[in-house]
């Protein structure tokens, strides 16, 4: 289950996020974008993800209040190039 973590300090690291989320269960991977102040965490189970979200949302890490929520899968047409339009005759 993918979890979005926003409002992260630029001083935070992948290891900070991993350590924090491992308190709630197995972490598959962590991705941190310091320049954007956000990260992504993938938890191995739904229950661990739910526990992490409820336990960490609003908590403080390095002086910043975390915004933690489950990533919603996009539905609908895939993004990218638009299909070519047929010319009228």
Automatic annotation (TrEMBL):
Pfam family, one: RRM_1
Classification via SMART domains: RRM
Any one Gene Ontology molecular-function term assigned to this protein's record: mRNA binding
Domain RRM: from-to ranges: 1-73
InterPro entries xrefs: Euk_RNA-bind_prot, Nucleotide-bd_a/b_plait_sf, RBD_domain_sf, RRM_dom
Keywords for this protein: RNA-binding
GO cellular component: nucleus
Keyword Protein biosynthesis: no
Name assigned to this protein: RRM domain-containing protein
Organism placement in taxonomy: unclassified sequences, metagenomes, ecological metagenomes
């Amino acid at each position: 289950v993918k979890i979005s973590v926003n409002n992260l300090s630029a001083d935070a690291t992948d290891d900070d996020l991993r350590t924090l989320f491992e308190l709630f269960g197995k972490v598959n991977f962590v991705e941190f974008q310091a320049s954007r102040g956000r990260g992504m965490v993938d938890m191995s189970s739904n229950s661990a993800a739910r526990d992490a979200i409820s336990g960490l949302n609003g908590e403080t890490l390095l002086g910043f209040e975390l915004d933690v929520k489950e990533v919603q899968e996009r539905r609908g047409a895939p993004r990218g190039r638009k299909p070519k339009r047929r010319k009228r005759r």
